[in-house]
Amino acid sequence: MRIDVVTIFPEYLAPLELSLVGKAHRAGLLDLRVHDLRTWTTDRHRTVDDTPIGGGAGMVMRPDVWGEALDGLLGDDGAVELLVPTPSGERFTQRTAERLAAVPRLVVACGRYEGIDARVAEHYRARGVPVTEVSLGDYVLNGGEVAALVVVEAVARLLPGVVGNPDSLVEESHGAAGLLEYPVYTRPPQWRGHDVPEVLLSGHHARIARWRRDRALERTAERRPDLVARLPADALDADDRRL
Ligand code: SAM
C-alpha cells in the first residue's frame, strides 16, 4: 500500500519512521511519502492561505495550491482515495481503518488554519476521486497532521506482515466481536498486593477463554454501553446472557 501525506509541516510526521510503522516502511510493506505543500506554491512567500471570503476570523487554505499538489498525486483514474481530516467529517473508526487497509493508494491532505477551501473536496469528488472527510472525534486540533499519524498507524498495523503475530489483531478492542478487550496481565503474578486472577494461572484454556469473554462483556457494558447496544442479535450466547 502507498500513502502520501501532504502537509505544511512534514517534520510533524517524523514519528512514522519509528516502531512498527517505520519498520514496515523500511521493509517495503508500506510505501509512505510525506510532501511539503509549499513545494506547489509559485510566489516568493510560498503562500498557502488567504482570508475567508465572506469575512470572519482566521485564514483558509487556498484551493489553487491544493489543486496543484493533488492533481499529480491523485491521478485521474479514481484509483487513489483522498482522505481529508476535518472535525466536520465522519468519525474515524476501526471499520474505516479496515476499509482503508484494502485501498492500494491513499492521499491524506492535512488542513491548517480554518481548514481547506471547501471546493477542493467538491472538485475531486466531481472528478470521480473517492473522497472521505474524517474526524478523529468531537474536538478541534490545530491541524490534520495528528489525524494523519492516527490514520497511518491504524491502517498500517492491519497490513499483512506489519504486526509480527497476526493473532494479536484478532481479539482486540473494536474488532470483529464488537467488544472491548478483556484486562491483560504479565509477570510477576503478585505485584504490590495485586494478584493476577487465579484462573489465568490455571493453564485451563476453556476456563481462561470463558473468563476473558466475561470480563470483555462486563467491561464493555460498563464503559461503552453504546457498543453492547450495537451488537447483532446473535452475538451473545446463553453463557453470555447469564452475566
Ligand atoms: N474551523 C474548523 C472547524 O471548526 O471545523 C477547524 C479547523 S482546525 C483548527 C484545522 C485543521 O485541523 C482542520 O482542517 C483539520 O485538518 C484538522 N482537525 C482539527 N480537528 C480535527 C478532528 N477532530 N479530526 C480530524 N482533523 C481535525
UniProtKB/TrEMBL annotation:
Belongs to the RNA methyltransferase TrmD family. It catalyses: guanosine(37) in tRNA + S-adenosyl-L-methionine = N(1)-methylguanosine(37) in tRNA + S-adenosyl-L-homocysteine + H(+). It is an enzyme of class 2 (transferase). NCBIfam families: PRK00026.1, trmD. Specifically methylates guanosine-37 in various tRNAs. Keywords: Cytoplasm, Methyltransferase, S-adenosyl-L-methionine, Transferase, tRNA processing. Homodimer. It holds the Pfam family tRNA_m1G_MT. Its main location: cytoplasm. HAMAP family: TrmD. Its EC number is 2.1.1.228. GO terms for molecular function: tRNA (guanine(37)-N1)-methyltransferase activity. GO terms for biological process: tRNA N1-guanine methylation. S-adenosyl-L-methionine binds at residues 111, 136-141. Residues 1-229 form the tRNA methyltransferase TRMD/TRM10-type domain. GO terms for cellular component: cytosol. The gene is trmD. This is tRNA (guanine-N(1)-)-methyltransferase. It is found in: Cytoplasm.
